[in-house]
Design a protein that fits this description.
single chain, alpha/beta, Oxidized Rhodanese, domain 1, 4 helices
Length: about 100
Amino acid sequence: MGKISAEELRRKMDGNEKLVILDLRDEQAYREGHIEGAILISLSDISHDIEDIVQNKDETVCVYCYSGNKSARAAMMLEYLDYSNVCDLGGITNWSYDLKK
C-alpha cells in the first residue's frame, strides 16, 4: 500500500489508467461532490462487497474519505484481502481538482 498524491491520481485518470476509486464518505457527502468515477462504499461493506466491485486483485484501487483515517483502514483491509495495488489518497481535502455531483 502506498500514499498517492492528488496530482499523481489525476495523472493516472488523465492517462486512462485502469483503476477503481472508492469513496468512503457518507452518501450525502458523495452527492455533494466526489472524484470523477468514484464508487461510494462504506468501510464496513468493503470486506463483503469488494469482490463484486473489483474482481481482479491486481487492479489499482485508490481509496479516500474525509480526513484519511477510514481510507488508511480501508487500504490495510484491501491488502489483507490480497489486493496488490492499493493506494491511499487520504482525505478529500487533498483533492484540489473539480468534483462531480
